Amino acid sequence: MRRWPIGLGLWFLVLATAEGACLVAVWRFFVRSRHGQLLDTVALAGNWIGQNRIEGIVDAALNTVSVVSLVGATATIGFIALIRRRAAVALGAIVLIAGATVTTQVLKRLIERPQLGVDVERAAAGNSLPSGHATVAAAVVVALVLVLPARVRGVVAVIGAAAAALVGVATLSAGWHRPSDVAAAFLVVGVWANIAGLFILVAQRTHGAVVYGMTNKYAVAVLGLAGLVLLAGAAIAMKLTDQVLTTPTDDLSRNRLLTAYGGGALGIAGTASLVVGAVLLTAHRVVPQAVPPPVHSARSGGIPEEVKDGPAETP
Fold first, then answer.
1. Which residues, in sequence order, are CB contacts of 244 under 8 Å at separation 6+?
2. Are 313 and 298 in contact (CB under 8 A)?
3. Does residue 131 carry a pLDDT above 90?
4. pTM of whole model > 0.70?
5. Which residue stretches belong to region Disordered (predicted)?
6. Least confident of 106-110, 260-264, 300-304
């Protein structure tokens, strides 16, 4: 029977708590305070810049996310895990996608956006945090990272983080969501990724001995470094936007609006990189390589021989 990976379990609990705390901080600042609402509004107001040039990309990104595509993606992810004989991972991936999606919809209805005299034209729309489209995109990416073989996991994680960020920025460009809505969605997925990780660890404890697979350390480094750089750029853009918050949005220059919009996009991409990178960091220990049953030796009178070397990753 597999030993309890106590350190890894504690890591999931700590990371889930940290991401949950970040989610609360995003809500309190960008939804509950006038300062945060102003920053979000200025960033959203810049979405018209260059909109004609990227309209096709935006539409394509948003049209890929629907109830039908979510069901299809979930079924595909479960199928991949099952053909690789990873029943616990299949269930964990489904828990992740369902939990994140339901949580987003519940939060969207429970959270109230106070009217603080900011963005009066959209006041009637109410709360939009977290983004449902961004949640679905990120949840599918993280689930894929868990179910795919280790040899392709790193590449898929980097491409997937970029794809999730693209969907998030697309909702901003289309005027559907503010930057904080998307960041909150990614954090919801991050919390559920840790819950799914704990679920898989407990379920796989009955699977016997395991061998750890590839660490994908280069992909983790790329995602981690990219996330930190992107969030640093977003922080600089927010600082520059702070200087013009007393100016009506309609009176701001194109460059000021572009800075705010770009900062929002950087924040979205940075959050996606760090959330996916955190999952990839421990994926090889959550989904280890399988070890075959002990081999019976005729010379030992049928006593099982200890398997010392694990096999290659099951495709």
1. 42, 252, 256
2. no
3. yes
4. yes
5. 292-315
6. 300-304
- The answer to whether the CB of 80 falls within 8 A of the CB of 147 is yes
